[in-house]
Write a structure and sequence with these properties.
By secondary structure, this protein is α/β, with parallel strands linked by helices. The chain has a domain at 53-75 and 116-282: 3-Layer(aba) Sandwich (Rossmann fold). The chain is built from eleven helices and seven strands. It has helices at 2-23, 34-37, 43-60, 78-94, 99-132, 150-160, 193-202, 214-228, 242-248, 251-256, 274-282, and strands at 66-70, 141-144, 165-170, 187-190, 204-209, 237-240, 268-271. A seven-stranded parallel β-sheet has the order 4-3-2-1-5-6-7, with helices on both faces. α3 (43-60) runs parallel beside α7. The longest helix has 34 residues, at 99-132.
């Protein structure tokens, strides 16, 4: 009886010890271990994965080349801008002469002005996608940052004509969900801005920059620097909305100051509509 009791006790101890091993974090398979993957020492692995996952998916979807569309996430659709204008005008009528109402009117007017860029980005994506994605060929696939505003317009234009498009989202302190028009198999989420920007340019045949803020300027100037220094092949860099860009960035002044060469100004072209943008791309 004592032997049986001892045997049962030993078996229970064995089971408990074995279960403790199975539950130990060290036993988790390395690539399935989220704690391990978040360690600073694993940064090179995370960087490699962010390079390889979108690369594999794009290859599997036969993406040969891309057209990059940058611009503000805050750009409204024409419909949104029209509704905002109507609401601002209503508040101004109800509160005539108040600073808040006047400020709302000015903001609505500026938003309405920028809504034209949503329309142009959408038309451009329709045009490029319908002419370049034929019989399964995936040339000049529109790629955006995957968010709202101009990014949504680019993906939406491709979606309008039944074409593929890519969205390269980024994890931010505030929530950013992918816009609904991205091709699901080509919708990615990045942790590192550097790898995301690398994917923007790896297959790019043109870069189209619509009015935008810090993010747009960051992406634009990095691309110009890489082209200027011959780190990537020269591609058309087209700025949409010359009045905006002339106000925001004085490129000729950079040449006048001697901090860029006069010929560096030739890296940039300007356009106002989808047909002109497409002409600059196709004639390059």
């Amino acid at each position: 009886m004592q032997n049986e009791s001892t045997f049962a006790s030993e078996e229970e101890e064995r089971r408990v010890l074995q279960q403790a091993l199975l539950d130990c974090p060290a036993y988790v398979t390395a690539y399935e271990d989220p704690v391990l993957m978040e360690r600073p020492e694993l940064r090179p692995v995370r960087l490699m994965l962010e390079l390889m996952k979108p690369e594999i998916a794009q290859a599997e979807n036969n993406v040969v080349s891309t057209i990059v569309v940058f611009g503000s996430a805050r750009t409204p659709t024409p419909e949104m801008a029209q509704e905002e204008t109507a609401q601002a005008e209503k508040r101004a009528r109800e509160n005539p002469g108040t600073p808040e109402a006047e400020k709302a009117l000015k903001r609505a007017a500026k938003r309405r002005e920028h809504a034209q860029y949503y329309r142009v980005a959408r038309e451009l994506a329709q045009l490029v996608s319908s002419r370049c994605q034929i019989d399964g060929t995936c040339d000049h696939v529109v790629v955006t940052g995957g968010g709202p505003g101009i990014m949504e317009a680019g993906n939406r234009g491709a979606h309008d004509v039944g074409a593929k498009s890519i969205g390269l989202n980024i994890k931010l302190p505030f929530e950013q969900a992918p816009n609904p028009y991205i091709t699901p198999e080509l919708c990615f989420d990045f942790r590192y801005f550097g790898l995301r920007k690398m994917h923007f340019l790896m297959r790019a045949k043109a870069l189209i920059a619509f009015p935008g803020g810090y993010g747009t300027l960051d992406e634009l100037f990095e691309a110009l620097t890489l082209i200027q220094t011959h780190k990537v092949d020269k591609i058309p860099v087209i700025l949409v909305g010359k009045a905006f860009w002339d106000r925001i960035v004085d490129f000729p002044a950079l040449a006048d100051e001697g901090v860029i060469s006069p010929e560096d100004l030739d890296l940039i072209a300007y356009a106002e509509d989808a047909e002109t943008i497409w002409s600059l791309i196709s004639n390059n």
